[in-house]
Design brief:
Elements (H helix, E strand, L loop, with lengths): L14 H11 L2 H10 L1 H12 L8 H15 L2 H19 L5 H26 L9 E15 L4 E7 L9 E7 L12 E9 L12 H8 L3 E13 L6 H16 L2 H12 L7 H9 L10 H20 L2 H6 L2 H19 L4 H19 L6 H14 L7 H18 L1 H7 L6 H31 L1 E3 L2 H27 L5 H22 L5 E3 L5 H16 L9 H13 L5 E3 L6 E4 L5 E3 L6 H11 L6 E2 L6 E3 L3 E8 L2 E8 L7 H10 L2 E3 L13 E3 L1 H7 L2 E4 L4 E4 H5 L23
Parallel strand pairs: 3-5, 10-11, 14-15, 15-16
Antiparallel strand pairs: 1-2, 1-4, 2-3, 4-5, 6-7, 8-9, 8-17, 9-10, 12-13, 13-14, 17-18
Length: 737
């Protein structure tokens, strides 16, 4: 009989037995039995059994993995496919016969699917109208939040416009400082004229995406106030806390001059608006910027100080010490202080995260359990991811949890614990051990934070470990206690001497930041790194920190691979912003040249950081390989064994069609903020308004002929506003030429 179906439905030539065998082999239970027989499976099973106490630490990792996949997949069909895949893994794990590996797969896949669904639901729950195009309008609004940004001579207002204004229900407006008045308080009803525009999308691939952040904050527009602002209704007394924050910030700045007062106000109220950009940059370059963000360090200092103060004060009374459990009383007082400090500093997500962690520590102390553990960190991360899943992709979440996880993992290592434990020894050796612990901790934190800082900010400090040896004790044990004491003594008119001491300490901190940031090689800068490389480094770091057995060192593998990819990634040669107005070219020496001289500090710094260039860019017209006139520039770039001719327009003046077409034919790449006619046909790529409105800003690696776009980086999320190309009208490069 020929090969085929027999009358009884089996295949000819005896294939019925083969089909039965195959169906038996691929039955889920047979697959699970086959998996259990593999030696690697047995090895993993033994390792998971040894690490069973560490498995709960991976709960927030699994949830976060699902959230990260949602952000990177970026389409509904892919999200459904991912959730379906997770469901399939869950069903497969159910048939694993109750093995430890099967349970791990079950819970990881289930939590990953839940994470994807959670952020999907969150993105829809915060959905709000977004302004379609820039407008100038007059409207009434209620002030939700007032943020002084004194370093830029302005005040930032978050406004609720109501349902009948024809505007998005929530907008943010910058008001010049000379147009503000004492009546601009939370809860006040105002009338103003402003120029509003949609939240900005990333200007380049990998650049900061404000539209994403605005979406989850419910902001539908941002803009600038024009003219005077009328107060229609004064603020309600219920908003007294916000006014008290502003009054406290102003009071601190009045007691300490200059940068010391600005940073002192930040430590007291979380108000960073008065910090000069030069000082803020010095803090970032020296690795001390974390001191300006009210988070774990500050909340811990407040909680620790209040706990010890209450405990030691009550212990002075024998009657109280014998009748009450003073640690519980002190922990309750410290918890109230943590909540009050969180509210006073604006209750931002990082501060709330630190407050929750502090409350978990205090609860553990009340229960007599070990307080500072990785389980506490995992519980805090899980809390944040459930209520604010979008925070996972932000630098604040990643930096704070990476730092705390690295610190605890380091100090839980048996050898480090034995090295740093307290013992009977001379004061000099004890002090040396303390300094060494600070240095080692700072070094590990810098290593842990460096890939995150390079991914988000494209730069990282190298001397932060040394600077933090001085800065952290100075802030925790001197500056913050002095500031708190000065505020208390101000009630009796006795705070002036303490304010002077606090000012000197803060001035020392600022001087340290400027000294460290000015050292040669203080900052490492890298161009935008691939997402996969960043993911490998994070995966390796988590594997290294969350396990205890020797297989934890397997995490060094993906870390090294990711680091190698990051180190060998070639910086693009050409940078084009999404509006087509700004073009930057990078030469072989790593120097940047900008098309427009008046590109603005923000655009110039953004391009420079994404290119990984520390020096200031020069004007393209001053470049030896460029020829410019009032309407355009023609530059020659050598890459990939050939010379590339790049033509970029820089004015809105009329250019004759014949002259433009001829110039386009001589160029390999043409860039323009205007819509170029069909007659403009360059040899490789035409990046005009038509194409850029579809894909956003782009970077081009001429040597490898690779184009990266903002759309390719972010995907079509609900907050993106890229125009969909008409069929047959999508412009593309021709890499074969």
């Amino acid at each position: 009989m020929r090969d085929g179906l027999s009358p009884n439905g089996t295949t000819g030539t005896g294939s019925g037995s083969t089909g039965t065998a195959l169906s038996t082999l691929f039955h889920p239970r047979q697959l699970s039995d086959f998996w259990r027989d593999i030696q690697l499976s047995k090895l993993i099973e033994r390792q998971l059994e040894k690490e069973r106490d560490q498995l709960p630490l991976w709960v927030p990792v699994a949830l976060g993995f699902g959230i990260a996949c949602w952000f990177n997949l970026a389409t509904g069909a892919r999200w459904l496919a991912f959730i379906s895949l997770c469901g399939g893994i869950v069903l497969f794990a159910v048939t694993s016969g109750g093995t430890r590996l099967g349970k791990v797969l079950f819970w990881f896949a289930l939590l990953a699917g839940i994470g994807c669904a959670l952020i999907w639901l969150r993105s829809w729950s915060v959905a709000a109208p977004v302004l379609e195009r820039p407008i100038v309008t007059t409207f009434n609004a209620e002030i939700e939040r007032v943020e002084p940004v004194l370093a830029r001579d302005m005040v930032r207002l978050t406004l609720s416009t109501g349902d009948n204004s024809g505007l998005p229900p929530r907008v943010r407006v910058n008001v010049p400082l000379d147009r503000t008045s004492p009546g601009l308080q939370d809860g006040a009803l105002i009338q103003l004229r402003a120029r509003l525009m949609p939240p900005a999308m990333p200007a380049l691939p990998g650049a900061y995406d404000f539209s994403e952040r605005a979406w989850f904050q419910g902001l539908g527009a941002t803009g600038q106030a024009l003219g005077e602002i009328r107060i229609l209704r004064a603020a309600d007394p219920v908003f007294a806390l916000s006014r008290y924050r502003q009054m406290l910030s102003a009071h601190v700045q009045s007691q300490m001059a200059g940068a010391a007062g600005a940073i002192g106000a930040t430590l007291a109220t979380g108000d960073r608006g008065a910090i000069d950009e030069e000082d803020a940059e010095a803090m970032r370059r020296s690795g001390l910027a974390h001191l300006l963000s009210i988070s774990g360090l500050h909340v811990t200092a407040v909680v620790g100080a209040v706990y010890l103060l209450i405990l030691k004060t009550l212990a002075l009374s024998p009657a109280l010490a014998l009748r009450f459990r003073l640690p519980i009383v002190a922990a309750a007082g410290a918890a109230l202080a943590a909540v009050a400090y969180t509210l006073m500093t604006g209750a931002q997500v990082p501060t709330i995260r630190a407050c929750v962690a502090a409350l978990l520590v205090l609860v553990a102390l009340m229960m007599g359990r070990s307080a500072i553990t990785l389980r506490m960190v995992a519980a805090g991360a899980l809390f944040v991811l459930i209520f604010w899943p979008e925070s996972l992709v932000g630098p604040s979440f990643q930096l704070s949890f990476a730092a705390v996880t690295a610190i605890i993992a380091l100090h839980e290592h048996p050898r480090i614990k034995a090295l740093l434990m307290l013992r009977e020894e001379s004061l000099m050796r004890r002090a040396g051990r303390f300094v060494f612990a600070l240095f080692l901790t700072g070094l590990v934190v810098e290593i842990a934070l460096m890939p995150i800082a390079l991914y988000h900010f494209h730069k990282a400090g190298l001397y932060g470990a040394l600077a933090n040896i001085i800065a952290i004790p100075l802030t925790t044990f001197l500056i913050m206690p002095l500031e708190a004491l000065a505020l208390v003594l101000d009630g009796f008119g006795l705070g002036a001497p303490v304010w002077w001491l606090c000012e000197q300490a803060l001035s020392s901190l600022i001087a340290l930041a400027h000294f460290v940031s000015s050292r040669p090689g203080a900052v490492t800068m890298l161009p935008t790194m691939p997402v996969i490389a960043f993911g490998l480094v994070l995966l390796g770091g988590l594997w290294l920190c969350l396990w205890r057995e020797p297989w934890r060192y397997w995490g060094l593998g993906p870390m090294l691979v990711g680091g190698l990819v990051i180190a060998t990634t070639r910086a693009p040669d050409l940078y084009i912003t999404g509006d087509g107005r700004h073009v930057a070219i990078r030469n072989e020496q790593g120097e940047l040249a900008m098309l427009r001289n008046r590109s603005g500090d923000f655009i110039r710094d953004m391009v420079r950081e994404n290119a990984g260039v520390e020096g200031e860019p020069q004007a393209l017209e001053d470049w030896p390989n460029a020829t410019c006139n009032g309407d355009s520039c023609l530059a020659t770039v050598s890459a990939g064994g050939r010379d590339w001719q790049i033509l970029a327009t820089r004015s809105g003046h009329y250019i004759p069609a014949l002259a433009l077409s001829a110039a386009c034919r001589r160029a390999d790449i043409v860039v323009s903020e205007r819509r170029l006619p069909d007659g403009c046909q360059p040899r490789w790529l035409k990046a005009d308004r038509n194409l850029l409105s579809q894909v956003g800003g782009m970077t081009i690696d001429l040597e490898n002929r690779q184009i990266s776009t903002a759309l390719g980086w972010t995907g079509r999320h609900i907050w993106t506003r890229y125009r969909v190309a008409a069929r047959g009208n999508a412009a593309s490069a021709r890499p074969d030429q």
